[in-house]
Amino acid sequence: MQIDLKELLFIARDAGAVILEIYNDPEKANAVTYKSDHSPLTRADEAAHAVISSGLNRLTPSIPVLSEEGREIPFEERKHWEYFWCVDPLDGTKEFVKRNGEFTVNIALIHKQKPILGVIYVPVTGVMYYASSSDGAWKIDAQGIKIPLKVNNATPEWTSVGSRTHSAPEDADVLANYPVVKSISVGSSLKFCLLAEGLAQIYYRHGPTMEWDTAAGQAILTISGGTVTTPTGEPFLYNKESLLNGSFLCKVV
């Protein structure tokens, strides 16, 4: 399937623009409510969802959209999908609320349970990461320079990356099996991006995530030469009956 990547990047940037508009308005940015799972919801989440859903429906009218802020779609309907968009309009809402800038727009295209295209946009910096199975993996920096993404698997000393807000005792047990000498923490899907651009070599997540948290990052990392699997090395798949992810391991090959 051919997707207009240029148009897709415009959609991500447009979503980032509405997020920044709210982020830079203290009254709007501080209007936070909480979902049933106690996760925060801001006006920016909802505004970005509207922009992305509208844009994807124009770009690919025949491909359904599964978004964190969209309606809940029963598995009986979803199980028939060959392709679908998996979207987190504002990944890292907790980072948005903390105002540290480490939040992203995530858009992924899934084909038969596997991410084949991913876009991650960082509104505060203007940096774009994207990858597709046909076009390779790329970063567009704040100056608009296009840089190829490739994991760094040549270093004998690995850097691990972890969450700013989530950690578990199991993390250290897994990382002990690898030549990790340094650890860094960063919010949202930026962890996948750090591996994809060679700044880290491993990321293990024990705690729960949702499919839209990982889909775009998985596409970018795998197309950059890394892997995303279950802790036992099984494929990490999407459009499951439950959209809740289990533990996963990202690393260079």
Q: Can you put this structure into words, describing what you see?
A:
By secondary structure, the chain is α+β, with helices and mostly antiparallel strands. The chain folds into two domains: 5-148, Fructose-1,6-Bisphosphatase, subunit A, domain 1 (Fructose-1,6-Bisphosphatase, Chain A, domain 1); 158-252, D-Maltodextrin-Binding Protein, domain 2 (3-Layer(aba) Sandwich). Helices cover 30% and strands 30% of the residues. It has helices spanning 5-23, 26-29, 43-59, 75-78, 93-98, 169-175, 190-196, 211-223, and strands spanning 32-34, 40-42, 65-67, 83-91, 104-111, 114-122, 127-132, 136-140, 146-148, 158-162, 180-185, 202-205, 209-210, 226-229, 244-245, 248-252. The strands form five sheets. It has a seven-stranded mixed beta sheet, sandwiched between helices. The chain has a three-stranded antiparallel beta sheet with strand order 12-16-14, with helices on both faces. A two-stranded antiparallel sheet has the order 1-2. Helix 6 (169-175) links the parallel strand 10 and strand 11 (180-185). Helix 1 packs antiparallel against helix 3 (43-59). It is globular, with a radius of gyration of 17 Å. The model has no long low-confidence stretch (mean pLDDT 94).
